[in-house]
Amino acid sequence: MNTRQLISRSLSHYRWTAAGVLMSAALGTAVLTGALLVGDCVSYGLKHRVELRLGRIQTALVGGDRFFRQQLADDLSKRLAADVVPAIILPAVAINPDTDRRVNQVQLIGVPNRYFYLGPPKLGVCIPSFADQVSVLLNQTMAHRLDIRLGDEIVLRVAKPGLLPRDVAMAGPDESSIAFRSTVERILPPDLFGDFNLFANQAAPLNVFVPISLIADKIGQPGKANMLLCTVPNRDGSVEAALVDSIQIEDLGLELRTLAKGPIELRSPRVFLEPPTSAAALATGTGASPSLTYFVNELKIGDRATPYSMVTAVSPDRIPGLFPAETKDNPIVLNQWLADDLGAKVGDLLTMQYYLVDDARRLVIAASAFTVTGIVPMDHPALDRELMPEFPGLVDSENCRDWKPGIPLSLDRIRDKDEKYWDEYRGTPKALIPLSVGQSIWQNRFGNLTAVRWPAAGNSMETLAASIRKSVKPSSIGLTVQPIREKADAASAGTSSFGGLFLGLSFFLIASAVVLIALIFTFGLQQRLSQAGLFVAVGWPVPQVRRVLIAEAAILCVAGTALGSLAALGYTAVMIAALESVWSGAIAGATLWFHPTLRSVLIGGGISIVIGLAACTLTLRRPLRRPARELLAGSVETAVSNATPGRISRWLAWICGLAVIPLLLVGGFHPDPGLFFGVGSLLLVGALSFAYRWLAWIHDKQSSLSQLSQLARRNTTRRKGRSLAVILLLAVGVFLIVAVGANRQNPLGTAHLRSSGTGGFALFAQSAIDLPKDPGSDEGQQFFNLDAAAMTDVGVIPMRVREGDDASCLNLNRAQQPRIYGVEPKRLTDLLKEEHPGPFSFKKTGGSWSSLDTDLGSDVIPTVGDYATVYWALGKQLGDELGFTDDKGNPVRLRIVGMLNNSILQGGLIISESNFIRRFPSVGGYKAFLIDAPADRQTAVADALSHSLRDYGLEVVSAVDRLMTFAAVENTYLSIFALLGGLGLIIGTLGLGFVVWVNVLQRSGELAMMRAVGFTRTRLHALLIREHVLLVILGVVIGAVCGLVAVLPAILSAGNQVPIVPLVLLTVVIAACGLLWIRLATTAALRGNLLEALRKE
Q1: What is the pTM of this model?
Q2: DSSP letters along 204-251, please?
Q3: Whole-angstrom Cα distance, residue 395 to residue 427?
Q4: What is the Cα 469 distance to its own chain's centre?
Q5: What digits encode the pLDDT tens for the residues 532-590?
Q6: pLDDT tens, 358-395?
Q7: R_g of the chain, CA atoms, integer Å
Q8: DSSP state, 977?
Q9: Is 210 left (phi over 0), alpha (psi -120 to 50) or beta?
Q10: DSSP code string of 369-402
Q11: I want to staple 492 with a disulfide (CB 3.0 to 4.6 A). Which of 46, 262, 572, 787 is the partner?
């Protein structure tokens, strides 16, 4: 018989033991490989969502509030030899007129029919298109939320973009949104490009697709777009280079025209020329003449005043002799009409009053003093009505009383002579001042000039336009090329390895399978010790015997792994189904696809084989070192188990016990969860050490054995190592399940505190369309017509929002460009009170709201974020920096200067409002709100705000509900851990039953002797059960008590609803399963013929 035959016959002869090892290996493989496959499915889901969301799109030209020609898409397409599609994307509110149901945060997407050819390929399905120019298409999520079907009507209210941000003075009359009605033509599933979104967010967007021509006409931008979608990546700046070659003056938001009097003029519909444009214009052509025209409130000399006038700042060297060569005071030149109205003469002191916008975009009245240095006739070349820029609300007005410039006006101050001036001279400036003076008082973040003029001689519009196009970088005025596919691919890598996470959650299941392998293989080895001794006795080297036994183990492990790999597919399917239903909170409701990979199967199988072989090899190490005589006698277990316990356990118990005392004293004053978890862990180690010492003491104690219970205790200590292993397995398992499962988040009880995750705020609100005013201010309440009674004792902290990726725990993607909030730090620090360290609380690593105002340099902005956002979603820590691009295309670094504990601000980063306005001036108002409201009127306040601001798509939620939404993710993971851990421990109790069975079989001679001297089978049965029940009770009690100590802060915390009942039930089930397996194993083992065992003694 050769070695191969020996292995084959041994496996056949010991087939039941082999089957046990094989099934245990299969169980471990199924769980381990299944966890990796679940990670594969989640990873595939994230990447597949990118395909569905972006299709073939690689790059996007994003204009935001800036519009350019749709024709630019065709020009770029020719240069790049790729598909380029224009689009208009705006925030909107959708209404089902039949049910009056509203959906906020809608993304309205205006596209031509060729847009849908950019989507993911779907064979055999008709590409969507618009049948006419008035119907709309909805994605499935939108249709479901709005409860709308094909052919139904829908009302859309969309944000109407202005030439300036709507919260800026001179932005014109407020027309924040427009509404129109349409018919739903088709509902698009994700695989028909219905879920297009620039941001890497978990939740499906709420998309409404409309013909681009329809929405462009509705918002007053015919033939325009604010986004281009391109199918080629921006490698080496190829898309940006093609953009520079294709862009026209109009695309830059500029207008170049020839005036009636001959000069060529550059101006902007946005009123001001931005610094990059101004610099390029002044460096172009010959004889450039800049000007800055401003609308002032009053010009006054003495007690005579002229209301509401245009004043132009011009360059003195372009109009020789207009201003004195030398003057110490601010010179001003009046036109004849103004001089007559004020009775002015050269040398008079004139006061000019005008509005400015402060850093928070609030209107403030300012004044400057000037000295009259000249008076010019109305036909002077410097007085040109075309100098007035296209101020919204002014330029198209027929008379002064129709003015609606967006700033407070006292129309009763306008006189008949003012109306006549407007009729005859329109916006002709009434006064001229030097350009340097005008820029020092009027330049702002939107620009420093309103026009540049060139003489016609020596200049041409074509040459000027070409030069400006080449000189102005599109990104410097807000037209940015974004590698959206590159960012999406990076985001789809996820915030963490879900496979690794599920491995951790399944730890006890895998550990239980490994324990079973070791126990069953040990039992098989015990049966074959005499066989191994015989081999050694007849001359086989011990290594050869070891190789034969390891070969048997390897065959079983490989076979079990193969079977487990197949079972892993079913396990994965079950886990995916659970994650999409009862455990959906763990993945924030994401859609998963069953997508196992061979790589994970091979990795899981390989690891399973290694672990199984390691467990089997370790069990062989000590027995095969014994002499052949002991192996033949089968007495190795006794030989290796009777070692005298050392002093380590005694010292360990004392050290752990003494270390707990100071920790408890500190924890009594500061009940920190981490501190108490450490206390519980020390108690667990100390209790297990004490248990081992107690077993040794019982074993060494000389006591009477007159009672069955005394004999049971003595027998329990005969194999102290095996007994301690049983206690250890149960105690550690129960401890972790209790300690982890009890730490569920429930912020209800502390929600009123400023230091809590709600910041003490009652409500949190978000709008679809920016609010131009603070609804908490008196001005805002009047502007929005809010109910004064409902807003009594209500405080509102408004925040500006720059949209970006959701960086909360509700998004499995790794946020690349997170949402940014802009808030005035003083509004938050004003809420500080002695008894509160809030609003909200910072991690112990430091941070405060005042740190947002810290000056870190021109390109570094201090920022604060929720811990989950900073650490998990972004992978950053305190002091780290995050790269960003502002509205002008300039690189910015956001430095983390503070991290909040779990809060309702999770999902974005917070910077100061002043930094926000400086870096993101295109954001025209407030979009998120922290709201203080009396507890008994929270619903009334929410209803009042939602109703009055419904056209802005305001959605108000309870701050507690928002915090609970974030907490649901962590709580779901804890539930998964508790369930899988409990299942692992229940399976582990099967190993306990196996231990009992083996113990009884090994003691069959002893039990036969006891039977012969008068013990009944019933008393033997009771004796064996008592021996092992004590181990189960010790393990469960030690684990539960130490676990309760570890979660004491959670139990005592106000409002924390510890799931006592589920944890108790799970602990009872574990104990009950252990007792059940003990009983079944004892009964099965005692069914044998004890007299036969006695004859062998």
Answers
A1: 0.84
A2: PP-EEEEEHHHHHHHTT-TTEESEEEESS--GGGHHHHHHHHH--TGG
A3: 8
A4: 39
A5: 777 777 778 878 878 888 888 889 889 999 999 999 999 999 989 988 888 888 787 77
A6: 766 678 899 999 999 999 999 998 899 999 998 887 88
A7: 40
A8: H
A9: beta
A10: EEEEEEEE-TT-TT--GGGS---TTTTT-SSGGG
A11: 46
